[in-house]
Amino acid sequence: KFGDIDNLKGLVMRFLLTTSYYQLSVQNWFSLHRLQLVYNHSVQATFNATRIYAPSSYSYHCDRVSSLQRYDALLIPSSPNDVSKLWEVTFIDFQIQGFNIQEGHFAYAKDCASFFSPAILMGLVMSLILLLVLAYALHMLIHLKSLDRHYECKASPAYFVQMKDNDMGDEKEPLRNSGNESYELRNQQFCKIYI
């Protein structure tokens, strides 16, 4: 009850709540069925409420409950020809609890914010993209061919005909062959690369 506001005598807002038992959730739920604006001792505007419900032991909370489309219009005029269309009703930081009120305080609130807000949805999409990039990178790593099997490194000696220099005696070793005397150089490697 708001009392007299300008030329509105005895302004009252009536919230008509209903309660129902749902077997699936095994508890009672309340819902806001209708909002009535009463002034000058008669009902002047009626709005049907949509999607305003919560378990009976909870309260319902929403940042904005409005009849305006820009605020998601949870309050809808009861009939197209009604004078309700002339009213714009918006509640900011709206919280209601019709049943099981204890010590004049609201119970835990069921919020009207949807589970998939735009920020959450963008986060999920970005996570999916990053997961696909990671899966592609792992796929490429798994199918990466190792270069080890394409390199064939062999320690093969090089043979030179005997030279007259005597100071290389510790780096060469005579080979026993039939005919020519040859020397082998130690610790020399060469690699063949197959492409």
What can be said about this structure in brief?
With 195 residues, the protein is mainly beta.
Overall description:
There is one protein chain. With 195 residues, the chain is mainly β. Helix content is 13%, strand content 42%. The chain has one helix and 14 strands. Strands 1, 2, 3, 4, 5 and 7 form a six-stranded antiparallel sheet that branches. β1 and β2 form a beta hairpin. The mean pLDDT is 77.
Radius of gyration, in angstroms, nearest whole number: 43 Å
Percent helix = 10-25%
Overall pLDDT level: 77
Order of helices and strands: EEEEEEEEEHEEEEE
**Individual helix count:** 1
First-to-last CA distance: 90 Å
Classification by helices and strands: mainly beta
Largest sheet properties = 6 strands, antiparallel
Shape by Cα distribution:
elongated
Low-confidence stretches: none
Strand percent estimate: 35-45%
Short key terms for the protein model shown above:
1 helix, three-stranded mixed β-sheet, six-stranded antiparallel β-sheet, mainly beta, 14 strands
Layout of strands and helices, then pairs:
Elements: E1 3-5, E2 8-22, E3 27-39, E4 42-49, E5 53-55, E6 59-66, E7 75-77, E8 90-96, E9 109-111, H1 118-142, E10 151-154, E11 159-161, E12 172-175, E13 182-185, E14 190-193
